[in-house]
Design brief:
The chain is of the alpha/beta class. Strands 3-2-1-4-5 form a 5-stranded parallel beta sheet, sandwiched between helices.
Length: about 170
């Protein structure tokens, strides 16, 4: 009977996992982690890397973040874009450098970007951007990241002393 109870418990847990991850409930469950807000003119747009593939191409999350940030830049929300992200798996292919490469291929100028290539985690990115902001007298940024990463990222940047507003991708 203990074995039967264990099997029923595992089946119930499995059913709950499937229900949450394979239905619209995932959006509902993740809603407290998502912070949207109106974007406004700031000193810089910050793009957090979301990974690169082994061949150096941007993973989907990074690509979506970059495109959204470039659209904000073209609309005049900031005069500069800070690309941040190292690569813990292959330091020779930093996320930030690969984002810049794609932006240059799209016709943007390198003078539009500040590229930070060392930070591998959100907390490191926040501290690196805080240093860049202090050095360049940048006081406010739009922080571009994925929806479920927005809550944690904004808190981390605030803790590092960066005044960031959400640039959460829809």
């Amino acid at each position: 009977t203990a074995r039967l109870l264990l099997l029923w418990g595992l089946a119930l847990i499995g059913g709950i996992v499937v229900l949450i991850t394979q239905t619209p409930l995932i959006g509902w469950a993740a809603r407290p982690l998502v912070i949207y807000g109106p974007v406004e003119r700031v000193d810089a747009i910050v793009v957090l890397g979301g990974g690169v593939r082994y061949d150096g191409e941007l993973q989907d999350a990074t690509q979506r973040r970059l495109i959204y940030a470039l659209r904000l830049f073209l609309k005049g929300y900031a005069p500069v874009v800070i690309l941040t992200g190292g690569n813990p798996e292959n330091p020779a292919l930093s996320e930030a450098e690969q984002m810049e490469r794609v932006a240059l291929e799209l016709g943007f100028s390198s003078r539009n970007f500040i590229v930070e290539t060392k930070a591998k985690r959100t907390s490191e990115q926040a501290r690196a951007v805080a240093r860049i902001a202090r050095d360049r007298q940048l006081t406010s940024v739009i922080l571009v990241t994925s929806p479920t990463h927005s809550y944690r990222a904004l808190r981390t940047f605030k803790k590092a002393g960066v005044q960031a507003i959400p640039g959460t991708i829809d």
